[in-house]
Amino acid sequence: MICPLCENKRTLPFWRDQRRSYMRCDRCFLVFVPTEYHLSLAAEKAEYDLHRNDPGDPGYRKFLQRLFEPLRERLTAGAKGLDFGSGPGPTLAPMFAEAGFDMAIYDPFYAPDRSVLQNRYDFISCSEVLEHFHAPGRELQFLWELLAVEGWLGVMTKLVIDQQAFSRWHYKNDPTHVAFFSRETFVYLARKLNARLELIAPDVILLQKTS
Fold first, then answer.
1. Cα separation of 148 and 96, whole Å?
2. Which DSSP category does 38 fall into?
3. The predicted structure's pLDDT at residue 204
4. How far is residue 197's CA from residue 153's CA, in Å, rounded to a whole number?
5. How far apart, in whole angstroms, are the C-alpha atoms of residue 114 and residue 206?
6. Is 72 helix (H, G, I), strand (E, B) or coil?
7. Which of 13, 27, 151, 152 is most buried, judged by most C-beta within 10 A?
8. Degrees (nearest 5) of the Cα angle 140, 146, 149?
9. Who's near 36: CB < 8 A, 6+ residues apart?
């Protein structure tokens, strides 16, 4: 079974529960769900429609501050950003706009205007998005090409620690979560992309595109 991130053919069973099996790549250490367990687009959207992320909710904004603040601190005035995977209630984009940054949003279900993907950006935010990627290698490469040199990709996603923790991890139980990254996965990505990597928090990661 080929790794959907690095296309390595050496992947091994990592865990299995009553609903799905999980594989792990021995090169990039991505843990992924085989495609036979992926939801249809309609079923996936039905799950997302259950989310109730309110842009006006102070608690939700406080949660997003953990990505917003370190990313904002690294931006120059006038930086142009894209919130990729903005969801049914875009919140990061308004937060950056309120801080003076020009923002665009894209979401394949809720903001599907692909014209915004024709532009270059000084930063891209992806909050709770990467774990939904069916083809993370292709999708991350696409995002990377949208970044200007010295631009930042800011990510929030919970990380795999080990098999024991994974076995009781609530994060894997969401049926739309099909790709699980670890610290080692981001180290691999940084090397592959020739990027500067900053691990800000256990679930907050920044990658800078170097020249």
1. 18
2. P
3. 98
4. 10
5. 24
6. helix
7. 152
8. 105
9. none
Tokens of 116: 């915004």
Are the C-beta atoms of 81 and 124 separated by less than 8 Å? yes
Rounded distance between C-alpha atoms, residue 32 and residue 42, angstroms: 21
Name which of 96, 104, 102 is nearest 71 in CA terms. Answer: 96
| Concatenated DSSP letters of 135-156 | SHHHHHHHHHHHEEEEEEEEEE
CA distance 126 to 71: 11
> What's the token pair of residue 72?
């904002």
Average pLDDT, the chain: 96
The two three-digit tokens of residue 13, written as one number: 């069973």
The Cα–Cα gap between 154 and 163 comes to: 26
Which residue from 109, 100, 99 is spatially nearest to 129, judged by alpha carbons? 109
pTM for the whole structure? 0.96
How far does CA 101 lie from the centroid of its chain? Answer: 21
| Tokens at 108, concatenated | 């394949």
- Bridge-based pairing of strands 102-106 and 80-84 is parallel
DSSP 9: S
The span from the CA of 22 to the CA of 172, in Å, is 9
Q: Are strands 31-32 and 179-180 parallel, antiparallel or unpaired?
A: antiparallel
- Predicted confidence (pLDDT) per residue in 115-174, tens digit: 999 999 999 999 999 999 999 999 999 999 999 999 999 999 999 999 999 999 999 999
Domains of the chain: 11-209 (3.40.50)
